[in-house]
Every structure is written in C-alpha cells, then in structure tokens.
Amino acid sequence: MSTRPNLLMVVPIAWSPLWLPWLSEANLNVFLHGRDEYKLEDIDYVLSFRPPPGFLKTLPNLKAIYSLGAGVDGFLADPEFPKQIPLVRFVDPQLSTEMAQYVVMHVLLQHRRAKAFEETQKQSKWAQMMLPRKTADTRIGILGFGEIGTMAGERLRDLGFPVSGWSRSRKRVDGIKGYAGEDEFAAFTGSSDFLICLLPLTDDTRGILNAKSFAMLPKDSYVINVARGGHLIENDLIAALDSGHLAGATLDVFQTEPLPETSPLWKHPKIVVTPHIAAISDPRVAANFVIDGIARAERGEKHPNTVDMSRGY
Q: At a CB cut-off of 8 Å and minimum separation 6, what does 143 contact?
C-alpha cells in the first residue's frame, strides 16, 4: 500500500471538480465519498463541510478533519462527532476581506437610502431627500469580533461611524468600543442602530437574533446577518419588522438553504435576501490550505486554526 496520506473528500459529487484538480497534484491519495471504493481504516484525513451524522466516527485511524468553510457548525451538529480528532477551520484573508466588503456595502446602501432613490428614479422624480441621520450619530454594533468582525469594524470606523463590538472575551481595537459577555449584551444592543451578526454558531449563540434581542435595539435599527442562519429566529424578525420597531434587514444566510420559494423572507418589503454569497472560497486556495494542513499534521505540528472544542470555534 502507498505510504502517501489518504484524503477522503466528503462533499457533493457534483461539487468535487472544484477541488480535485488541485488536490490531485499533491502527494496524496484522494478518494471521493460516494464515488470511489476505499477502506474505512485506510483514511488519514477528511475534507468536508457538512458530513453525514455519525460518519466520521467510523474512520478508526483518522488524524485530522479539514473544513471547507470558516464555520464548523456543520461538523459539531453531529452528536457523535469524534471530538478527540483535530478539526481545522478554513481561514483565508481574501474571504475575510470579501465578507467585510459585503457588510460595509449593505450598511452604506441602507444608510444612504439607496432603495428610496431607486424608486424615485423609476418615477423620473428629482427627490433630494435628506439622510435619516448623520454618520457620526449612526452607531454600528458587530456581534462577533474575530478576524472578520474586526476587519469590518475598522472599515466602518474609518468611514466615520461609531463602532462597537461584542464577543465572548473583550477585544481591544483602536477607536472601537468593546463589549464582552452576557452581562454587557443589553448595553451593546441598546447602542446599535445597525446590528451585524458575524458570530460563530455554537450552542450559546444559536437563536441569539430573537424577539428579546430585537426589543433591546433602538427603534428603526437595521439587522444584517452574514454568519449562519441558525443565529436568527426568522419569525421573530418578521414580527419586529411588521410592528415597525425595526427598519429592515439584510440576510445572506438562512435556517434552510437554499431558501424555499415559499419563504415569506423573499417578498418582505423590508428584507434584502442574498443567496449565501457574502464571500465565496477560492477552490485553489482551499485546496492548498488542506495540502499545507496535512503536511503540518504529518510533521506532528498543530495547525494554528484548529478548533477549540470547549468553545466550538
């Protein structure tokens, strides 16, 4: 048998050509789950995003698992996930940049009333409307102040917005106010005219965007969720919008994806829907990330992006 490491890809077969050309060039034996024959005991590494529940525990000699995304909730949702196996999340600076761009774009579209001007253009109407509030008085709150949250916060800060960030442990970033922990959550939400969710999805953060948190927000606040659909109670959002308490929302992630055609989110006049495209991983970068990770593991090194199982990210 070859001494090369054996990598198993557990992804939809139709998607596999995105990564196979780059992985096939590496010093690896690559198998595709559902297409290729292999022995469970021969698999050293797995590359996946949302493997079938209970599957990973059947691989007795697994050394490490690599995620195709920054989030790892698709793995940890499995009650039988083998937590003794290192789980490595995908980190790409370009991906973080694109996420920050998406956040800034949708803050500015709402802040500068882009939708209203689109409507007046359709009517051939010259309407020099005033902005709803000054930039310096428009407070941005970012839920989840890791790499992406910090990057988005810095860019919005540099545009003149007052920015605050909330996270499990206090983060210190120049010009940005830091909040931490459950005790400071109400103060954080109460001072957020825009609430942007960039949290990892864990048992503690699931459903955090709910009726209670929306009620804490100032009237006419705007919600942006680009983290995971599991953070948001969608019916609570609709109720807060219909009551007039919230001004609107931009959603890129949903409880069910693809978003069903019957979902009321599609046609709600105060909601902007995008199909989970805030940032798209470059397949070559993702493949090289895995190749580098396996090389580290073969040398006995711990990958810097290994998930802390006690925190879930």
A: 149, 166, 195, 196, 197, 198, 199, 208, 227
Residue-wise pLDDT tens digits, 120-174: 999 999 988 877 789 999 999 999 999 999 999 999 999 999 999 999 999 999 9
- Judge if 6-92+281-298 and 93-273 fold alike in CATH terms: yes
What distance lies between CA 305 and its chain's CA centroid?
16
What torsion, rounded to 10 degrees, do the Cα atoms 214, 218, 224, 227 define? -50
Would you name the residues annotated as active-site residues? 228, 276
- Confidence (pLDDT) at 260: 97
The domain locations on the chain are 6-92+281-298, 93-273
Cis peptide before 258 (omega within 30 of 0): yes
- SS3 of residue 89 by DSSP: coil
Name the token pair of 85.
């196996």
Tell me the fold of 93-273. Answer: Rossmann fold (3.40.50)
Q: Are 4 and 28 in contact (CB under 8 A)?
A: yes
User: What φ, ψ does residue 213 adopt, rounded to 5°?
Assistant: -70, -35
Residue 1's pLDDT band, with cuts at 50, 70 and 90, is very low
How do residues 22-35 score in pLDDT, each as one tens digit? 999 999 999 999 99
Q: What are phi and psi of 137, to 5 degrees?
A: -105, 5
- Fold of the 6-92+281-298 domain: Rossmann fold (3.40.50)
Rounded CA-CA distance 246/267 in Å is 17
Helix (H, G, I), strand (E, B) or coil at 66: strand
Residue 129, CA distances (Å) to 113, 184, 247, 270, 272 in order: 9, 36, 17, 19, 22
Residue length of the chain: 313
pLDDT bucket at 2, cuts 50 / 70 / 90: low
